[in-house]
Specification:
The N terminus is likely disordered. A six-stranded mixed β-sheet has the order 3-4-2-1-12-11. A six-stranded mixed β-sheet has the order 5-6-7-8-10-9. It is an alpha+beta fold and 453 residues long. The chain has two domains: 286 residues, Endonuclease/exonuclease/phosphatase (Deoxyribonuclease I, Chain A), CATH 3.60.10.10; 141 residues, Jacalin-like lectin domain (Vitelline Membrane Outer Layer Protein I, subunit A), CATH 2.100.10.30. It is built from seven helices and 25 strands. It is 19% helix and 37% strand. This is Endonuclease/exonuclease/phosphatase. GO terms for molecular function: endonuclease activity; phosphatase activity; sphingomyelin phosphodiesterase activity. InterPro entries: Endo/exonu/phosph_ase_sf (IPR036691), IPPc (IPR000300), Jacalin-like_lectin_dom (IPR001229), Jacalin-like_lectin_dom_sf (IPR036404), Sph/SMPD2-like (IPR038772). Keywords: Endonuclease, Hydrolase, Nuclease, Signal.
Length: 453
């Protein structure tokens, strides 16, 4: 019996370790597939069979292979058939068929805190009807690890799905370059300090001299700590961008050939991403008679992830409104960040949050309304817990109240408490050093950045 109890204790300890590790490391499987969902009367996509039947088969394959996050493009008039046979718990609502929708949707096992559709600012009908529909890209901040029930930690990655302008005429090339650059500008503004995955139908090839934007997307960030990588170039091309054209058959078992469907990614101080496998998986998406289901090779990438060793974050509280902000990049440049002063502003609601680090760096977000309050922390005093309360204002959810608690038992509060609150406690040995979220004149959505003491 003593041996049995020892074994049970050892097993329990191992399980606890596994649970802890599961919150800070894991695996992620993603798929990108252009589902050839244009109305049959407009485009057959050179795919035999009935499009509704094919769409139902695609949805059933999505359910069967159980990818974590699937981006689809050209998901227009047969969208309902795909969703009818798929079983992913989180799925974007369609924006409509031709000519109303973008054809971009996501089917996911992961929930997200915000989803946006963005139309291309530039399009071209030079060689195809790219301006017929509001093509563009989508953005979502998905929780790849939801964290503990007490909101202590969470891990997020920003997912982008895109379908760029097609064709090789001069106007097409100009539009496509503008498309890719538009995504890059959006990432710079909204995903600062965050890990990013961009995948979809770029309609671009490295082997075409005019397609410079995808080269810039990689080259402009190579050599930096959080640079963008192309999973295909990294894993199948040995890191060498091809200069000669090598077109893929469909289905293709040759992973060295180049398609326009691509996967880019980057890590951040909060989470490290690493692509482990890249495959064209058309052989998994075939009709009963062996014919393909789409004129594109679906692209599958398996990724490992791990939480940052020196910076982590909490879950979010509040609503998806306002402009995204993040202190992560600034904090990553500070060796041992520690707040010396906490400052909040509030009245009926929470107007702003601010802190000053011991090196003089000041991090502040929100507006100038409400009354100001602050405390100065001692040399060995740390901010270790925060309480947020949210409510409705003008039909939008935002943060109404914050209370900070330190290791010395002191508190600082601002705003007005509601009945809808959550407590955020820094992990053992860590403390709160900054913020992430969305804000305007007030704090709409808020999360906290942790660092080791």
């Amino acid at each position: 019996m003593k041996l049995l109890r020892s074994l049970e204790a050892a097993l329990s300890t191992a399980l606890l370790v596994d649970v802890a590790l599961a919150a800070t490391a894991g695996k992620l499987s993603i798929l990108s597939m252009n589902v050839a969902g244009l109305p049959a009367i407009l485009n057959s996509n050179d795919v035999p069979g009935d499009k509704t039947t094919n769409a139902e088969t695609i949805g059933s394959k999505f359910a069967e292979y159980d990818y974590d996050v699937i981006h689809v493009q050209e998901d227009f008039n047969y969208h309902a058939a795909i969703y009818r046979t798929d079983n992913h718990p989180f799925r974007t609502a369609t924006s409509g068929g031709v000519p109303f929708g973008s054809g971009l949707n996501t089917l996911s096992k992961l929930d997200w805190v915000q989803f946006e559709r963005v139309k291309w600012a530039t399009c071209s009908d030079a060689s195809s009807s790219d301006c017929l529909t509001p093509k563009g890209f989508t953005f979502m901040r998905a929780a790849i690890s939801a964290g503990a029930a007490d909101n202590t930690t969470a891990v997020y990655v920003d997912f982008y799905n895109l379908h760029a302008d097609a064709g090789t005429e001069s106007g097409d090339n100009v539009a496509r370059q503008a498309n890719i650059n538009q995504v890059a500008s959006y990432i710079a503004a909204s995903s600062q300090g965050n890990a990013v995955l961009i995948y979809g139908d770029t309609n671009s090839r490295y082997s075409r001299a005019a397609d410079t934007a995808i080269r810039s997307l990689v080259a402009s960030t190579s050599g930096t700590s959080f640079g963008m990588r192309d999973a295909w170039v990294e894993l199948q091309r040995g890191g060498v961008v091809p200069s000669e054209e090598s077109l893929c058959a469909n289905p293709s078992s040759n992973y060295l050939c180049e398609t326009v469907d691509k996967v880019f990614y980057r890590s951040s101080p909060l989470v490290t991403l690493k692509a482990e496998t890249f495959q064209y998986v058309s052989s998994l998406f075939l009709q009963a008679d062996g014919n393909v289901l789409s004129d594109h090779n679906p692209v599958s990438v398996n990724i490992t992830w791990s939480s940052g060793p020196s910076l982590r974050q909490s879950a979010f509280w509040g609503g998806p409104h306002g402009t995204w902000f993040s202190d992560v990049s600034a904090l990553a440049n500070v060796k041992k960040p520690k707040p010396s002063v906490l400052s909040f502003r509030g009245g009926a609601r929470l107007d702003s949050v601010s802190l000053t680090l011991t090196d003089g760096t000041r991090l502040t977000h929100g507006g100038t309304g409400g009354s100001a309050t602050s405390i100065t922390l001692g040399a060995s005093e740390y901010w270790v817990e925060a309480r947020l309360c949210q409510g409705q204002r003008s039909g939008q959810t935002r943060n109404f109240y914050i209370q900070a608690s330190t290791t010395s038992g002191r508190t600082l509060a601002a705003g007005t408490a509601t009945q809808d609150c959550a407590t955020f406690s820094a992990p053992s040995g860590w403390h709160i050093v900054g913020f992430l979220g969305q804000a305007g004149d007030e704090l709409d959505q808020l999360a906290f950045v942790y660092a080791p003491k």
